[in-house]
């Protein structure tokens, strides 16, 4: 247990040095061989300056010198800062953009409440008070500022406030006249849930309508203030919009020159989509309204899948029907509503989350449990008999629908397809579909032009055999030939045309359908998404454009002529129903196969993307460890949010690849836990902290997980971490002959865990895209598809002790050929290239459990991270020092010394 330690250089106000250890007092009498041996004498009392029983510190903004030293080229007006506070309980936001963190206590001494009331009071220009604390003449300055408190402008005079309002009004008018400009979007800092509060504290949320570059040097009501210290007199003051607690509308966002889409708007929408349905709403009225519609259509059950009409795993906010009807926010699960009950079927990743989010009107069905159903189809077929089951045919894939229909027929039941989605009919405030413009993805990053990709698909169509009976000897009829293919998968359409969009959070795709034949290519898309530039680009590819909803009349009227259209098994069943079985052929998606094999340009882009993401990760982890070691309380939400800020500074950053998974303690045991601003717990020092996140870059999509500890881990935690690490190393080091599937290698990741009777319920890894979706097939460690050079996939074994802690290590791998000593049977041998460049913390690793090769792998990985990332973070001395330490440090914790003292030199 940590009971004392040397003060940090920052606490002493001195320069940072590296030779101060942290000293721990440990219980060592259990390790003595003989009970008769006298216990060592107790060490003398350790008393160091800078240590007290103060409450934990909270974050404030900024460490200006640190942020400017890292990137002096960026103007200071693009950074979020907080000016000095006279009290440890007061913060002040003056600017928005790049964040750094510091504490008021580094510059200002702690004060009692009585002392704090004697200092000058901050008079906000947008706030009027009934009373003010009088000041002595020697404390006043001509501009209303206090000389005693460093001239921070605590007491702006009336004239100054009037002038400031005029400047704001003039700037607002000038802003409205501007037509084009590259401005960064406005972001809100997280509210500090661990800040000190008093009974008179109030929370103020205000967003200035002016962009950051227009607010430089201003002292107006744009402060995002939380838990400010307020006197009894100020509690009853008359407040304007700036000082009230109500949230004002978000400011206008501006287009970025980095692409032809609204990058700022994209980021804001993606962040907001994570919390699209907050709280736990009462679903009784929604269920009652749905059952009324079911009664009209004589339905016994109604099925609401998670997917949209394109089979997307992640969907736009307007397609979150299952989330709206059930209030369950997980990305996977199916809702089934009967006349009297409601059920949610989901897998083990979301069991705990579902229990927390579902109200009393819902029953959780645990798919994959040892005594439960395999999936929602298995549960439904086993339950129903002589029933009519309604479902929107657009929201279920062809292969699932046909399989479910066959199983239901044996029970005297059948699927019914109402002409309209019943949830849409009762969802009164349903958001509109995104109309964000699409934009080009340069061949510089794609590697192959769109016209070459289209030509390859057309050649593949011509090579497909006609659909004729095997016994037939006559020439195939025109109606039996394969003449075209229809794509509904959004990432496949974006990949094929080298286009990207912003319709779905975290996924740079757009809603569309793509028809391809030998002589015609048609893109079905909403016209509002197509700019003049994109229209000209599509014409250069000889791609016709039709309205998004025109697809159905195109299919119904058979506008393509004679012949069959090739569909993938995951195509919406509504398309199959519209064509009828005589007009389509089901084949595996050729475009998915093309997309999964990354070319050399895409692979090089991914290497660069993972280096940039690794640099952001290292800077963030150095920052986080520094704050945790100096007594700050950081919440899961704050940690995740700060990592995103570091990523935003990287070149080519386009947003997050998925919602940040940031969990401490029992929350880390939830594989897909996402912290929320108001309910996130503080990261504790007794359990591992897990962060699973990744950025979208113009040259690649990233997905990384690391588990770290900020205290002294227990033996249970160390053993579990070591077993997970062994599985991670086993996959990374695997060599296998060509033709081996990922599923065949899955056991390597679990073997070490199995030795201790441990396991995990999720997959070991999945494919991912090149500036596309973070989940991509068909390759993966749960897939039977053979791995091939150019495939990329993640390696992420884990272990989760429910209610206690969770551990996961994830790195990205690329499949490539390797040279072996032997060449048995002429086989081609394959291995993995590790793309992820983030050190693995060795504190929780048990040296005695690792083999010699495993130890060597761990040391080489951390040293390689230093060699590759050092050029990218030279301007950040704190991160550079942290990275070098991680590359050089040994495995495990330092052993206890005689007398019960152990030293951790970190």
UniProtKB/TrEMBL annotation:
Pfam families: Creatinase_N, Creatinase_N_2, Peptidase_M24, Peptidase_M24_C. The keyword Manganese applies. It comes from the Eukaryota. GO terms for cellular component: cytoplasm. Its cofactor is Mn(2+). Residues 115-141, 157-171 have a biased composition (Basic and acidic residues). Coiled coil: none annotated. Residues 829-886 form the Peptidase M24 C-terminal domain. Residues 142-156 have a biased composition (Gly residues). InterPro entries: Creatin/AminoP/Spt16_N (IPR029149), Creatinase/aminopeptidase-like (IPR036005), Creatinase_N (IPR000587), Pept_M24 (IPR000994), Pept_M24B (IPR033740), Peptidase_M24_C (IPR032416), X-Pro_aminopeptidase_P (IPR050422). Residues 68-262 are annotated as: Disordered. The keyword Mitochondrion does not apply. Residues 68-114, 172-206, 226-246 have a biased composition (Polar residues). Keywords: Hydrolase, Manganese, Metal-binding. Residues 604-816 form the Peptidase M24 domain. GO terms for molecular function: metal ion binding; metalloaminopeptidase activity. CDD domains: APP. Residues 286-409 form the Creatinase N-terminal domain. Belongs to the peptidase M24B family. This is Aminopeptidase P N-terminal domain-containing protein. It comes from Antrodiella citrinella. The lineage of its organism: Eukaryota, Fungi, Dikarya, Basidiomycota, Agaricomycotina.
